[in-house]
């Protein structure tokens, strides 16, 4: 009997796991969670965030056969929608404006992973899992307390840090914060976007320039 390949459910589950891992590896989001920019439930918000991104692909899963090629139009639309939602949720839920171009890179990676998983090709998601496993338990906050991203000389700045005293206070608060929400010890999971009530509004570790905290 001919091999029918992986089931649609396996392909979709693999993709959704890849989305969650992609967000766990996104440094601006990790920094926001570690710094409690989204409140004390930042890790839970990140799980919900993954569900909100995966939701964008529901119609594409339903309307495209596993073996079909993704048209450039579909891929471009998904890329634009994914980048827009990444930026919107970072702003709305984590009080953070990401303008370093990394949202586009993450969105592009997610769309490529979707294209691969839809065809039953899991090499990309397997490589992503290896990166995620290697990053578990590591914090990005320490590097940014010095005002620099890893391997980058450009600072991440906040608009509401008006003077050096404010900066020192912020550093002290981050030093005293717990680490329960900052590690990646738990397997990434999805929380369906509809499970969180929210108004309708809307790495790779190189190239970070500025992530500014939104003014209230």
Automatic annotation (TrEMBL):
Segments of this protein annotated with the region Disordered: 139-216
rRNA processing recorded as keyword: yes
One Pfam family per UniProt: WGG
Keywords: rRNA processing
Superkingdom of source: Eukaryota
Regions of compositional bias (Acidic residues) in chain numbering: 152-175
Family per similarity comment: Belongs to the TSR2 family.
PANTHER family given in the database record: PRE-RRNA-PROCESSING PROTEIN TSR2 HOMOLOG
The protein, known as: rRNA accumulation-related protein
The organism of origin for this protein: Sporothrix epigloea
């Amino acid at each position: 009997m001919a091999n029918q390949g992986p089931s649609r459910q396996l392909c979709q589950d693999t993709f959704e796991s890849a989305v969650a891992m992609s967000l766990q590896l996104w440094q601006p989001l990790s920094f926001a969670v570690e710094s409690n920019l989204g409140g004390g439930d930042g890790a839970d918000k990140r799980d919900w965030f993954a569900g909100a991104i995966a939701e964008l692909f529901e119609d594409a899963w339903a309307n495209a056969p596993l073996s079909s090629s993704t048209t450039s139009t579909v891929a471009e639309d998904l890329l634009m929608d994914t980048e827009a939602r990444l930026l919107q949720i970072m702003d709305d839920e984590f009080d953070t404006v990401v303008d370093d171009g990394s949202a586009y890179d993450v969105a592009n990676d997610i769309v490529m992973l979707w294209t691969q998983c839809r065809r039953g090709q899991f090499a990309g998601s397997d490589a992503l899992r290896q990166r995620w496993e290697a990053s578990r338990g590591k914090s990005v906050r320490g590097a940014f307390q010095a005002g620099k991203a890893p391997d980058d000389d450009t600072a991440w700045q906040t608009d509401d840090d008006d003077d050096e005293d404010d900066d020192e206070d912020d550093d002290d608060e981050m030093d005293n914060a717990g680490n329960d929400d900052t590690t990646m010890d738990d397997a990434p999971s999805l929380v369906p976007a509809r499970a969180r009530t929210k108004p309708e509004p809307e790495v790779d570790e190189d190239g970070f320039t500025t992530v500014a905290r939104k003014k209230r």
